Protein backbone atom coordinates (compact mmCIF):
# COMPACT_ATOMS: atom_id res chain seq x y z
CA UNK A 1 0.00 0.00 0.00
CA UNK A 2 2.70 2.48 1.02
CA UNK A 3 5.57 0.72 -0.79
CA UNK A 4 7.82 0.80 2.25
CA UNK A 5 7.19 4.47 3.15
CA UNK A 6 5.88 5.48 6.57
CA UNK A 7 3.43 8.29 7.34
CA UNK A 8 4.20 10.67 10.19
CA UNK A 9 1.56 10.47 12.89
CA UNK A 10 0.74 12.41 16.03
CA UNK A 11 -0.72 10.96 19.24
CA UNK A 12 -3.02 13.18 21.33
CA UNK A 13 -3.52 12.12 24.93
CA UNK A 14 -0.19 10.29 24.60
CA UNK A 15 0.37 10.11 28.36
CA UNK A 16 -2.92 8.34 29.15
CA UNK A 17 -4.00 4.69 29.33
CA UNK A 18 -4.98 4.55 25.66
CA UNK A 19 -2.12 6.86 24.64
CA UNK A 20 0.44 4.45 26.11
CA UNK A 21 -1.05 1.61 24.05
CA UNK A 22 -0.68 3.76 20.92
CA UNK A 23 2.99 4.38 21.77
CA UNK A 24 3.55 0.67 22.32
CA UNK A 25 1.70 -0.51 19.17
CA UNK A 26 3.14 2.15 16.85
CA UNK A 27 6.77 1.47 17.79
CA UNK A 28 7.26 -0.99 14.94
CA UNK A 29 4.31 -0.28 12.66
CA UNK A 30 4.99 -0.73 8.93
CA UNK A 31 2.82 2.27 7.86
CA UNK A 32 3.20 4.80 10.68
CA UNK A 33 6.03 6.53 12.53
CA UNK A 34 5.28 8.59 15.64
CA UNK A 35 6.41 12.14 15.01
CA UNK A 36 4.67 14.26 17.65
CA UNK A 37 2.97 13.78 21.02
CA UNK A 38 0.26 15.87 22.66
CA UNK A 39 -1.23 16.00 26.15
CA UNK A 40 -2.55 18.60 28.59
CA UNK A 41 -0.85 21.94 29.26
CA UNK A 42 0.40 20.31 32.50
CA UNK A 43 2.60 17.94 30.47
CA UNK A 44 3.45 20.20 27.51
CA UNK A 45 7.05 21.39 27.12
CA UNK A 46 8.59 18.40 28.90
CA UNK A 47 10.13 15.15 27.58
CA UNK A 48 7.64 12.28 27.41
CA UNK A 49 9.51 10.11 29.92
CA UNK A 50 9.29 12.87 32.55
CA UNK A 51 5.53 13.36 32.37
CA UNK A 52 4.10 9.92 31.58
CA UNK A 53 3.05 7.60 34.42
CA UNK A 54 4.02 4.54 32.38
CA UNK A 55 1.89 1.52 33.31
CA UNK A 56 2.75 -1.17 30.75
CA UNK A 57 5.01 -4.06 31.72
CA UNK A 58 7.44 -3.37 28.86
CA UNK A 59 9.74 -0.32 29.42
CA UNK A 60 8.91 3.02 27.76
CA UNK A 61 10.06 2.49 24.16
CA UNK A 62 13.37 4.28 23.59
CA UNK A 63 12.10 5.99 20.42
CA UNK A 64 9.64 8.07 22.39
CA UNK A 65 11.44 8.85 25.67
CA UNK A 66 12.94 12.18 24.62
CA UNK A 67 10.10 13.54 22.47
CA UNK A 68 8.92 16.83 23.97
CA UNK A 69 5.17 16.72 24.59
CA UNK A 70 3.17 19.52 22.95
CA UNK A 71 -0.12 21.24 23.57
CA UNK A 72 -2.87 19.75 21.39
CA UNK A 73 -2.96 22.50 18.75
CA UNK A 74 -2.91 21.69 15.02
CA UNK A 75 0.08 23.96 14.33
CA UNK A 76 2.21 21.83 16.69
CA UNK A 77 1.55 18.75 14.50
CA UNK A 78 2.14 20.38 11.11
CA UNK A 79 4.23 17.54 9.62
CA UNK A 80 1.80 14.80 10.61
CA UNK A 81 -0.76 13.27 8.23
CA UNK A 82 -2.67 11.11 10.72
CA UNK A 83 -3.71 11.93 14.29
CA UNK A 84 -4.55 9.24 16.83
CA UNK A 85 -6.55 10.63 19.75
CA UNK A 86 -6.75 9.17 23.25
CA UNK A 87 -7.85 12.47 24.76
CA UNK A 88 -9.97 12.81 27.86
CA UNK A 89 -13.58 13.24 26.74
CA UNK A 90 -13.85 16.59 28.54
CA UNK A 91 -11.57 18.13 25.88
CA UNK A 92 -11.59 15.69 22.95
CA UNK A 93 -14.59 17.13 21.06
CA UNK A 94 -13.28 20.62 20.30
CA UNK A 95 -9.65 19.56 19.86
CA UNK A 96 -10.53 16.85 17.34
CA UNK A 97 -12.81 19.25 15.45
CA UNK A 98 -9.92 21.72 15.19
CA UNK A 99 -7.56 19.04 13.84
CA UNK A 100 -10.11 17.96 11.23
CA UNK A 101 -10.56 21.57 10.11
CA UNK A 102 -6.76 21.79 9.74
CA UNK A 103 -6.92 18.84 7.27
CA UNK A 104 -5.71 16.02 9.51
CA UNK A 105 -7.17 12.51 9.36
CA UNK A 106 -8.30 12.05 12.98
CA UNK A 107 -8.93 8.62 14.57
CA UNK A 108 -10.60 9.11 17.95
CA UNK A 109 -11.29 6.89 20.95
CA UNK A 110 -13.56 9.38 22.68
CA UNK A 111 -17.34 9.48 22.79
CA UNK A 112 -17.69 13.10 21.65
CA UNK A 113 -18.19 12.64 17.88
CA UNK A 114 -19.68 9.14 17.89
CA UNK A 115 -23.23 10.40 17.41
CA UNK A 116 -22.41 12.90 14.66
CA UNK A 117 -24.57 11.83 11.72
CA UNK A 118 -21.67 12.26 9.26
CA UNK A 119 -18.98 10.52 11.38
CA UNK A 120 -18.42 6.75 10.99
CA UNK A 121 -18.53 4.85 14.29
CA UNK A 122 -16.13 2.23 13.09
CA UNK A 123 -15.41 -1.16 14.57
CA UNK A 124 -12.76 -2.27 12.08
CA UNK A 125 -13.76 -5.94 12.25
CA UNK A 126 -17.40 -5.08 11.48
CA UNK A 127 -18.32 -2.00 9.42
CA UNK A 128 -15.43 -0.59 7.35
CA UNK A 129 -18.01 0.07 4.58
CA UNK A 130 -19.22 3.03 6.69
CA UNK A 131 -16.06 4.87 5.59
CA UNK A 132 -18.05 5.61 2.41
CA UNK A 133 -19.57 8.59 4.28
CA UNK A 134 -16.22 10.41 4.56
CA UNK A 135 -16.53 12.35 1.24
CA UNK A 136 -19.88 13.67 2.45
CA UNK A 137 -18.39 14.62 5.83
CA UNK A 138 -15.69 16.59 4.02
CA UNK A 139 -18.25 18.27 1.75
CA UNK A 140 -20.07 19.75 4.75
CA UNK A 141 -17.18 22.13 5.43
CA UNK A 142 -16.85 25.47 3.77
CA UNK A 143 -14.70 25.27 1.76
CA UNK A 144 -14.90 21.45 1.53
CA UNK A 145 -12.02 19.64 3.18
CA UNK A 146 -9.54 17.85 0.94
CA UNK A 147 -7.83 15.59 3.46
CA UNK A 148 -9.40 16.17 6.89
CA UNK A 149 -11.97 13.89 8.50
CA UNK A 150 -12.90 12.26 11.82
CA UNK A 151 -13.50 8.55 12.38
CA UNK A 152 -14.37 7.33 15.89
CA UNK A 153 -13.97 4.00 17.65
CA UNK A 154 -16.86 2.52 19.53
CA UNK A 155 -17.03 2.21 23.30
CA UNK A 156 -14.84 -0.69 24.42
CA UNK A 157 -17.75 -2.86 25.63
CA UNK A 158 -19.77 -2.12 22.50
CA UNK A 159 -16.82 -3.30 20.41
CA UNK A 160 -16.60 -6.70 22.09
CA UNK A 161 -20.32 -7.34 21.85
CA UNK A 162 -20.91 -6.11 18.31
CA UNK A 163 -18.33 -8.39 16.65
CA UNK A 164 -20.19 -11.67 17.35
CA UNK A 165 -23.54 -9.93 16.77
CA UNK A 166 -22.35 -8.87 13.31
CA UNK A 167 -21.22 -12.42 12.59
CA UNK A 168 -24.66 -13.75 13.56
CA UNK A 169 -26.49 -11.15 11.46
CA UNK A 170 -24.33 -11.94 8.48
CA UNK A 171 -25.06 -15.66 8.77
CA UNK A 172 -28.69 -15.71 9.92
CA UNK A 173 -30.25 -12.36 9.09
CA UNK A 174 -31.53 -9.66 11.43
CA UNK A 175 -31.55 -9.90 15.21
CA UNK A 176 -34.72 -9.17 17.13
CA UNK A 177 -33.51 -8.73 20.72
CA UNK A 178 -30.21 -8.74 22.63
CA UNK A 179 -29.53 -8.77 26.39
CA UNK A 180 -25.98 -7.90 27.51
CA UNK A 181 -24.38 -7.98 30.96
CA UNK A 182 -20.80 -6.68 31.14
CA UNK A 183 -17.99 -7.26 33.64
CA UNK A 184 -15.57 -4.42 32.84
CA UNK A 185 -11.91 -4.07 33.75
CA UNK A 186 -10.64 -1.14 35.79
CA UNK A 187 -8.30 0.10 33.01
CA UNK A 188 -11.49 1.12 31.21
CA UNK A 189 -11.78 4.02 33.60
CA UNK A 190 -8.37 5.48 32.66
CA UNK A 191 -5.66 6.47 35.16
CA UNK A 192 -5.86 6.74 38.17
CA UNK A 193 -9.40 5.55 37.62
CA UNK A 194 -11.55 3.97 40.28
CA UNK A 195 -10.09 4.08 43.85
CA UNK A 196 -8.66 0.76 45.09
CA UNK A 197 -10.88 0.89 48.20
CA UNK A 198 -13.93 0.94 45.93
CA UNK A 199 -12.99 -1.95 43.65
CA UNK A 200 -10.87 -4.46 45.63
CA UNK A 201 -13.01 -7.28 47.08
CA UNK A 202 -15.95 -5.75 45.28
CA UNK A 203 -18.12 -5.32 42.18
CA UNK A 204 -19.62 -1.93 41.32
CA UNK A 205 -22.91 -2.37 39.42
CA UNK A 206 -22.82 1.02 37.70
CA UNK A 207 -20.65 2.71 35.05
CA UNK A 208 -21.91 6.16 34.18
CA UNK A 209 -23.40 6.39 30.68
CA UNK A 210 -22.14 2.96 29.64
CA UNK A 211 -25.46 1.13 29.21
CA UNK A 212 -26.92 3.86 27.02
CA UNK A 213 -23.76 3.90 24.90
CA UNK A 214 -23.90 0.17 24.21
CA UNK A 215 -27.62 0.28 23.42
CA UNK A 216 -27.19 3.17 20.98
CA UNK A 217 -23.83 2.38 19.39
CA UNK A 218 -24.70 -1.20 18.37
CA UNK A 219 -27.56 0.18 16.27
CA UNK A 220 -25.35 2.65 14.41
CA UNK A 221 -22.61 0.07 13.78
CA UNK A 222 -24.98 -2.64 12.52
CA UNK A 223 -27.07 -0.12 10.57
CA UNK A 224 -26.81 0.56 6.87
CA UNK A 225 -25.94 3.71 4.97
CA UNK A 226 -28.48 6.26 3.72
CA UNK A 227 -27.61 8.02 0.46
CA UNK A 228 -28.87 11.34 -0.81
CA UNK A 229 -30.92 9.35 -3.34
CA UNK A 230 -32.79 7.78 -0.37
CA UNK A 231 -33.37 11.21 1.17
CA UNK A 232 -35.55 13.01 -1.38
CA UNK A 233 -35.75 16.17 0.74
CA UNK A 234 -32.10 17.08 0.17
CA UNK A 235 -30.40 17.93 -3.11
CA UNK A 236 -27.23 16.03 -3.96
CA UNK A 237 -24.10 17.72 -2.58
CA UNK A 238 -21.63 15.75 -4.64
CA UNK A 239 -21.79 15.05 -8.39
CA UNK A 240 -22.07 11.54 -9.85
CA UNK A 241 -23.38 8.48 -8.02
CA UNK A 242 -25.75 8.75 -5.01
CA UNK A 243 -23.72 10.10 -2.10
CA UNK A 244 -23.51 7.99 1.09
CA UNK A 245 -24.37 10.57 3.72
CA UNK A 246 -25.47 9.04 7.01
CA UNK A 247 -26.36 5.84 8.89
CA UNK A 248 -29.77 4.20 9.23
CA UNK A 249 -29.45 3.03 12.89
CA UNK A 250 -30.56 -0.48 11.99
CA UNK A 251 -33.87 1.07 10.98
CA UNK A 252 -34.83 -1.63 8.49
CA UNK A 253 -34.97 -4.25 11.29
CA UNK A 254 -35.47 -2.51 14.65
CA UNK A 255 -33.30 -4.30 17.22
CA UNK A 256 -34.23 -4.18 20.89
CA UNK A 257 -31.14 -4.21 23.07
CA UNK A 258 -30.69 -3.88 26.82
CA UNK A 259 -27.31 -3.62 28.60
CA UNK A 260 -26.35 -3.90 32.29
CA UNK A 261 -22.78 -2.80 33.12
CA UNK A 262 -20.57 -3.71 36.08
CA UNK A 263 -17.01 -2.80 37.11
CA UNK A 264 -15.00 -5.80 38.36
CA UNK A 265 -11.49 -6.08 39.87
CA UNK A 266 -9.72 -7.14 36.65
CA UNK A 267 -6.88 -5.10 35.12
CA UNK A 268 -7.58 -5.44 31.38
CA UNK A 269 -10.30 -7.23 29.41
CA UNK A 270 -14.06 -6.67 29.33
CA UNK A 271 -16.16 -9.83 29.61
CA UNK A 272 -19.84 -9.84 28.61
CA UNK A 273 -22.62 -12.41 28.69
CA UNK A 274 -24.96 -12.03 25.71
CA UNK A 275 -28.40 -13.53 24.93
CA UNK A 276 -29.85 -13.17 21.43
CA UNK A 277 -33.22 -13.66 19.78
CA UNK A 278 -33.22 -13.88 15.97
CA UNK A 279 -35.99 -12.62 13.68
CA UNK A 280 -35.81 -15.85 11.71
CA UNK A 281 -37.93 -18.76 12.98
CA UNK A 282 -36.90 -21.40 13.71
CA UNK A 283 -33.66 -19.87 15.02
CA UNK A 284 -30.23 -21.39 14.31
CA UNK A 285 -28.98 -24.13 16.60
CA UNK A 286 -26.02 -23.62 18.96
CA UNK A 287 -23.87 -25.68 16.56
CA UNK A 288 -24.87 -23.51 13.59
CA UNK A 289 -24.03 -20.42 15.67
CA UNK A 290 -20.61 -21.84 16.57
CA UNK A 291 -19.85 -22.49 12.91
CA UNK A 292 -20.94 -18.99 11.90
CA UNK A 293 -18.72 -17.38 14.55
CA UNK A 294 -15.73 -19.45 13.49
CA UNK A 295 -16.27 -18.68 9.81
CA UNK A 296 -16.54 -14.92 10.31
CA UNK A 297 -14.05 -13.04 8.15
CA UNK A 298 -13.19 -9.35 7.95
CA UNK A 299 -12.56 -6.88 5.16
CA UNK A 300 -9.60 -5.60 7.20
CA UNK A 301 -7.87 -8.96 6.80
CA UNK A 302 -8.90 -9.19 3.15
CA UNK A 303 -7.33 -5.76 2.54
CA UNK A 304 -4.15 -6.93 4.34
CA UNK A 305 -4.32 -4.38 7.13
CA UNK A 306 -1.23 -5.15 9.24
CA UNK A 307 -3.13 -5.02 12.56
CA UNK A 308 -6.05 -7.23 11.46
CA UNK A 309 -6.25 -10.55 13.34
CA UNK A 310 -6.01 -13.77 11.33
CA UNK A 311 -9.06 -15.08 13.19
CA UNK A 312 -11.33 -12.25 14.39
CA UNK A 313 -13.37 -14.53 16.65
CA UNK A 314 -11.62 -17.37 18.47
CA UNK A 315 -14.13 -19.92 19.71
CA UNK A 316 -13.53 -21.75 22.99
CA UNK A 317 -14.94 -25.20 23.72
CA UNK A 318 -13.86 -25.40 27.38
CA UNK A 319 -16.84 -24.63 29.64
CA UNK A 320 -14.92 -22.05 31.70
CA UNK A 321 -13.50 -19.89 28.90
CA UNK A 322 -12.93 -17.16 27.81
CA UNK A 323 -11.37 -15.54 30.88
CA UNK A 324 -9.75 -12.07 30.99
CA UNK A 325 -6.35 -13.15 32.32
CA UNK A 326 -6.01 -16.13 29.98
CA UNK A 327 -7.54 -14.79 26.78
CA UNK A 328 -7.11 -11.00 26.57
CA UNK A 329 -3.82 -11.19 24.65
CA UNK A 330 -5.11 -13.46 21.91
CA UNK A 331 -3.68 -12.13 18.61
CA UNK A 332 -2.17 -9.19 20.57
CA UNK A 333 -5.64 -8.25 21.77
CA UNK A 334 -6.84 -7.55 18.20
CA UNK A 335 -9.63 -10.14 18.08
CA UNK A 336 -12.37 -11.28 20.44
CA UNK A 337 -12.87 -14.60 22.24
CA UNK A 338 -16.26 -16.31 22.47
CA UNK A 339 -17.29 -19.34 24.52
CA UNK A 340 -20.18 -21.12 26.20
CA UNK A 341 -22.42 -20.97 23.10
CA UNK A 342 -25.63 -22.64 24.14
CA UNK A 343 -29.42 -22.57 24.00
CA UNK A 344 -31.17 -19.78 25.89
CA UNK A 345 -34.50 -20.86 27.39
CA UNK A 346 -35.87 -17.30 27.21
CA UNK A 347 -34.37 -15.85 24.00
CA UNK A 348 -32.67 -18.20 21.46
CA UNK A 349 -28.92 -18.44 22.04
CA UNK A 350 -26.53 -17.24 24.75
CA UNK A 351 -22.73 -16.97 24.92
CA UNK A 352 -19.81 -15.19 26.61
CA UNK A 353 -17.48 -12.75 24.81
CA UNK A 354 -14.19 -11.22 25.90
CA UNK A 355 -12.52 -8.17 24.30
CA UNK A 356 -9.29 -6.48 25.39
CA UNK A 357 -10.61 -3.01 26.18
CA UNK A 358 -7.32 -1.18 25.66
CA UNK A 359 -6.45 -3.03 22.40
CA UNK A 360 -9.40 -3.91 20.12
CA UNK A 361 -11.54 -1.78 22.47
CA UNK A 362 -9.32 1.27 21.92
CA UNK A 363 -5.87 1.78 20.36
CA UNK A 364 -5.77 -1.26 18.04
CA UNK A 365 -9.15 -0.29 16.60
CA UNK A 366 -7.97 3.25 15.82
CA UNK A 367 -4.83 1.96 14.15
CA UNK A 368 -6.78 -0.60 12.10
CA UNK A 369 -9.27 2.12 11.14
CA UNK A 370 -6.36 4.20 9.81
CA UNK A 371 -5.00 1.18 7.91
CA UNK A 372 -8.46 0.66 6.36
CA UNK A 373 -8.64 4.34 5.40
CA UNK A 374 -5.33 4.03 3.57
CA UNK A 375 -6.48 0.83 1.84
CA UNK A 376 -9.64 2.62 0.69
CA UNK A 377 -7.75 5.64 -0.64
CA UNK A 378 -9.07 8.14 1.92
CA UNK A 379 -5.59 9.14 3.06
CA UNK A 380 -3.35 10.41 0.30
CA UNK A 381 0.04 8.75 0.60
N1 LIG B 1 -9.30 3.13 28.83
C1 LIG B 1 -10.07 2.46 27.97
O1 LIG B 1 -10.19 1.21 28.02
C2 LIG B 1 -10.82 3.19 26.90
C3 LIG B 1 -10.87 4.56 26.84
N2 LIG B 1 -11.59 5.18 25.84
C4 LIG B 1 -11.65 6.63 25.72
O2 LIG B 1 -10.36 7.12 25.31
C5 LIG B 1 -10.10 8.39 25.88
C6 LIG B 1 -8.84 8.33 26.73
O3 LIG B 1 -9.05 7.42 27.78
P1 LIG B 1 -7.90 7.02 28.80
O4 LIG B 1 -6.61 6.86 28.09
O5 LIG B 1 -8.44 5.88 29.55
O6 LIG B 1 -7.82 8.34 29.72
P2 LIG B 1 -6.64 8.84 30.67
O7 LIG B 1 -7.29 9.64 31.73
O8 LIG B 1 -5.76 7.72 31.07
O9 LIG B 1 -5.77 9.85 29.72
C7 LIG B 1 -6.30 11.08 29.28
C8 LIG B 1 -5.33 11.82 28.37
O10 LIG B 1 -5.91 13.10 28.04
C9 LIG B 1 -4.97 14.14 28.32
N3 LIG B 1 -5.64 15.39 28.72
C10 LIG B 1 -6.34 15.62 29.85
N4 LIG B 1 -6.76 16.92 29.87
C11 LIG B 1 -6.29 17.50 28.74
C12 LIG B 1 -6.37 18.82 28.21
N5 LIG B 1 -7.00 19.82 28.84
N6 LIG B 1 -5.78 19.06 27.01
C13 LIG B 1 -5.13 18.07 26.34
N7 LIG B 1 -4.99 16.80 26.82
C14 LIG B 1 -5.59 16.52 28.01
C15 LIG B 1 -4.11 13.61 29.45
O11 LIG B 1 -2.88 14.32 29.49
P3 LIG B 1 -2.10 14.62 30.89
O12 LIG B 1 -1.37 13.35 31.24
O13 LIG B 1 -1.19 15.72 30.52
O14 LIG B 1 -3.14 14.99 31.90
C16 LIG B 1 -3.97 12.15 29.02
O15 LIG B 1 -2.96 12.04 28.04
C17 LIG B 1 -11.34 8.76 26.70
O16 LIG B 1 -12.19 9.55 25.95
C18 LIG B 1 -11.96 7.40 27.02
O17 LIG B 1 -13.31 7.52 27.27
C19 LIG B 1 -12.20 4.44 24.89
C20 LIG B 1 -12.16 3.09 24.89
C21 LIG B 1 -11.49 2.35 25.92
N1 LIG C 1 -16.43 3.57 29.88
C1 LIG C 1 -15.51 2.53 29.46
C2 LIG C 1 -14.30 3.13 28.82
C3 LIG C 1 -14.58 4.36 28.05
O1 LIG C 1 -13.85 5.29 28.15
O2 LIG C 1 -15.68 4.38 27.29
P1 LIG C 1 -16.08 5.54 26.26
O3 LIG C 1 -14.94 5.66 25.28
O4 LIG C 1 -17.31 5.07 25.62
O5 LIG C 1 -16.29 6.81 27.03
C4 LIG C 1 -15.14 1.70 30.68
O6 LIG C 1 -15.27 2.26 31.73
O7 LIG C 1 -14.70 0.59 30.60
Automatic annotation (TrEMBL):
It catalyses: L-aspartate 4-semialdehyde + phosphate + NADP(+) = 4-phospho-L-aspartate + NADPH + H(+). The active site is at 156 (acyl-thioester intermediate), 270 (proton acceptor). GO terms for biological process: methionine biosynthetic process; threonine biosynthetic process. Keywords: Amino-acid biosynthesis, Methionine biosynthesis, NADP, Oxidoreductase, Threonine biosynthesis. Transmembrane segments: none annotated. Pfam families: Semialdhyde_dh, Semialdhyde_dhC. It is an enzyme of class 1 (oxidoreductase). Pathway: Amino-acid biosynthesis; L-methionine biosynthesis via de novo pathway; L-homoserine from L-aspartate: step 2/3; Amino-acid biosynthesis; L-threonine biosynthesis; L-threonine from L-aspartate: step 2/5. Its EC number is 1.2.1.11. Residues 8-134 form the Semialdehyde dehydrogenase NAD-binding domain. GO terms for molecular function: aspartate-semialdehyde dehydrogenase activity; NAD binding; protein dimerization activity. InterPro entries: ASADH-related, NAD(P)-bd_dom_sf, Semialdehyde_DH_NAD-bd, Semialdhyde_DH_dimer_dom. NCBIfam families: PRK08664.1. Catalyzes the NADPH-dependent formation of L-aspartate 4-semialdehyde (L-ASA) by the reductive dephosphorylation of 4-phospho-L-aspartate. Mediates the second step in the biosynthesis of amino acids that derive from aspartate (the aspartate family of amino acids), including methioinine and threonine, the latter of which is a precursor to isoleucine. PANTHER family: ASPARTATE-SEMIALDEHYDE DEHYDROGENASE. Belongs to the aspartate-semialdehyde dehydrogenase family. This is Aspartate-semialdehyde dehydrogenase.
Amino acid sequence: MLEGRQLKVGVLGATGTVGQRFISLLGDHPFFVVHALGASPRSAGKPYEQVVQWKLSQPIPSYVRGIVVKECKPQNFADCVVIFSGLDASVAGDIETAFRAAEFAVFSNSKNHRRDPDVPLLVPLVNPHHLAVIPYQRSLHSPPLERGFIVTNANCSTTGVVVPLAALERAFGPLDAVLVTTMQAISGAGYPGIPSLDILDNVVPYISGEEEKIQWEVLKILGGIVTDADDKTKASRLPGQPTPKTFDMHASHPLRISAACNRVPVLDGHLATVSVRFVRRPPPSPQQVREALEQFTTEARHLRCPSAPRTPIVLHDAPDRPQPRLDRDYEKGSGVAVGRVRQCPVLDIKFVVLANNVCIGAATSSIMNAELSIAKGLIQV
